[in-house]
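Methods — Computational structure assignment.
A single polypeptide chain was analysed. Its primary sequence is given first, followed by the predicted tertiary structure written as structure tokens.
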Amino acid sequence: MRRLILPTIAFFCLSACQSPEEEFAQGKLEKLCDGSIPVCSVHAACIVGDGDYLAADFPGGQRFLVQADRLDTKAVIRLYFEEMVFPGTEFQIKLYGPGCSTLETTHIIDVDLFDRAGDDRIVEFVLPVTDTGDHLLELYSDMAAAYLLTVDLER
């Protein structure tokens, strides 16, 4: 009887036991952002799509390109904190429209994002995308943390 239980547990664990990081990035591939794409007088590290996730660290900033092929969508930016060292005092997201003609921003000061993330360690931000084309996404924070990032364009 014992021989049947252990293989059964192992089978279920292989199919259902995921780490929180694996669950967050489920169905997405890690994108290595070490490029230099000129956009809006600066350089983005890579293009982030619906099928990608990124691993990065704060403090500091990151720049990515998000390509929108539909009008009137929203960019849903999710951060999963792998390691939370210090919550910092400032967090900012900027999403520029094609050619940097428009700007949507979220600027958070003196809010503990680790606390806001809760037990699942995930924070989510939604910014409108009104034009098709390449959008520059900038993240900046003075917090000390390792994180995973996804960007999904939704209607």
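Note: Confidence is low (pLDDT under 50) at residues 6-11.
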